[in-house]
Amino acid sequence: MIDTNTTAHGKWSSRYAYILAATGSAVGLGNIWKFPYITGENGGGAFVLVYLACVLVIGIPIMMAETMLGRRSQRNPIEAMEILTKEANADSHWHYLGWMGVIAGLLILSYYSVVAGWASAYILKAFTGSFVDADASAIKTLYADFISSPIQLIFWHTLFMLATMYIVVKGVKNGLEKAVQYLMPALFVLMFLLVAYAMTTNSYFQGLHFLFTPDFSKLTSNSVLTAMGHAFFTLSLGMGAIMVYGSYLPKDVSISKTVFMIAGADTIVALLAGIAIFPIVFANNLHPSSGPGLIFETLPIAFGAMTGGWLMGILFFIMLSVAALTSSISLIEPAVAWLVENRGFTREKACIWSGGVTWLLGLGTVFSFNVWSDFKVFDRSIFQLLDYLTANLMLPIGGFCIAIFAGWIMSPKHSEAELDMPIAQGYQAWKLLVSYVAPAAVFFVFLHVIGVL
């Protein structure tokens, strides 16, 4: 039996608090910044279908598994995998899975914080009227001048990291829980306001057609890998966040029910973001395949031209910043929890160390847009390399290993007891998906991308 007594380890006060926090972890820049632009780059509706299939068949089963591993161990991801490996009498190398998750989370946060800083900066730009009556050339110049300034990017990167650390330092109930209780409802209100505005444009149905009408001729093997990687990215899988949040979950809360609610809310937000953004893009004759700069180079043009665009611009970038913050606190929490529980750090000291290292790593992303723009590794900038390494490699590999451990290494008696599903067929379906379907899907997509298949 695992000893779960630890004074350092926190607990959510209720199922509702956990659902808000885990949904906040899942709902972030991935939904509002990344999903629209990768959907635009990969042809729209067909990509959305593949993404939804990845969430249902791969994402949800692995999310249940990762939550289960966290709750059974009641520890941070690094110690959790050490404990569970010993409990299963498995090869000791499995404990490196916890390390990979924590490292992936910090690497993601290092560039995530930089992009989140852009969103925060654009709140001020929208408020001061920088978008009003600005044409495409003016907005592109505004964006180019902004990202070419390392001083500005460092300032906003620092500000966002400090906000993240401030929340995390207060702990589970007084920091993480209180923050999401206010931030998540605000996020949904802002999202519905933007969707309501998109419905008033003359390109609303064009946006819906692009988002929901599949054209499979536009899909490539890389599109499938991107969809799968984004399912991991947006559900916060393989980066330690869901495992550590699961470790704070009380034993009387149903893992399966909460995971379905979280994945459903996350998917709805991603689709709502597309419904809000693409009509505005098409209404202003902009290009949906504009890449990472889609919401910074194209949407401000629309906000500057539309009636009420000043307010809509402010609300949009506030929403983007709120979504980023609810995710960033979950990305740093696994490292903080490990330092507190295994190295005897106070939460303050753990946040300073974790946040400081992440901030330093983030400078690589900052400089990849300006002074190091010509520096390439495997033909990618530092930002592009970190994004590809984490979202397309580390997270799927981490998810694959979580599926194998939960489906093949962990005792079925333990996994069934933790999941405690209302019907036996539910557990058997999960077992089938997590043991065979999810790992096979990840494996074959990788083989196809590297040219073996």
User: What order do the helices and strands follow?
Assistant: HHHHHHHHHHHHHHHHHH
Q: How many alpha or pi helices? A: 18
How many distinct folded domains?
1
Class computed from helices, strands and strand pairing: mainly alpha
CATH level 1 class label: Mainly Alpha
Note the beta-strand portion.
under 5%
> How much helicity do the residues have?
over 70%
In this structure, how is the largest beta sheet organized? none
Distance linking N and C termini: 44 Å
Q: Could you please say which CATH topology applies here?
A: Hydantoin permease
Architecture per CATH nomenclature, i.e. the level-2 architecture: Orthogonal Bundle
Average per-residue pLDDT, rounded, comes to 87
Rg, rounded, reads 21 Å
> What is the number of strand segments?
0
Describe the structure.
The protein is an all-alpha fold and 453 residues long. The protein has a single domain, classed as Orthogonal Bundle (Hydantoin permease), CATH 1.10.4160. It is built from 18 helices and no strands. Helix 3 packs across helix 18 (424-449). The chain is globular. The mean pLDDT is 87.
Which short descriptors sum up this protein?
globular, single chain, mainly alpha, 18 helices, Hydantoin permease, 453 residues
Layout of SSEs?
Elements: H1 15-26, H2 29-41, H3 45-73, H4 77-87, H5 96-127, H6 136-147, H7 150-168, H8 171-198, H9 204-212, H10 221-234, H11 241-247, H12 255-283, H13 294-305, H14 309-343, H15 347-368, H16 382-409, H17 412-419, H18 424-449
